[in-house]
From TrEMBL:
Keywords: Metal-binding, Zinc, Zinc-finger. It comes from Macrosiphum euphorbiae (potato aphid). Gene3D superfamilies: Classic Zinc Finger. This is C2H2-type domain-containing protein. SMART domains: ZnF_C2H2. GO terms for molecular function: zinc ion binding. SUPFAM superfamilies: beta-beta-alpha zinc fingers. The lineage of its organism: Eukaryota, Metazoa, Ecdysozoa, Arthropoda, Hexapoda. Residues 2-29, 29-52 form the C2H2-type domain. It comes from the Eukaryota.
Length: 115
């Protein structure tokens, strides 16, 4: 058991005693979104999540930053739509697919021609 030297509090885990001793030392954890401060970091984390919708992700769980994409000149007559993705700068062509109306009209024409 770990006993606080400044008050009668006793802790089963040393890290809890250390956190408790910070409270006696006047250590406060300020919110970055409002003027509130907290005695314990866990209280700050709960506050930022529940009140501000901010989740504190530990550094070891954060995604690694990607290597910067080197700038490449855009080839003539192409448009860059995303990094490393280029498409021709030309109007979209029409579709060669028939609409339902065109299919029906073709079927009716064929029927009239055979009738």
């Amino acid at each position: 058991m770990f006993k606080c030297e400044q008050c009668p509090s006793v802790f089963a885990v040393k890290r809890n005693l250390v956190a408790h001793q910070n409270k006696h030392a006047g250590v406060r954890f300020p919110c970055t979104a409002c003027p509130l401060t907290f005695s314990y970091k866990t209280g700050l984390n709960k506050h930022t999540k529940n009140i501000h919708g901010i989740v504190n992700v530990p550094a070891r769980l954060r995604p690694m930053t990607a290597a910067p994409i080197t700038a490449q000149p855009v080839p003539a007559q192409q448009v860059q739509i995303a990094p490393q993705i280029f498409v021709p700068d030309a109007p979209a062509g029409g579709s060669n697919m028939l609409t339902e109306d065109e299919i029906c009209m073709n079927a009716m024409d064929e029927f009239e021609d055979t009738g």
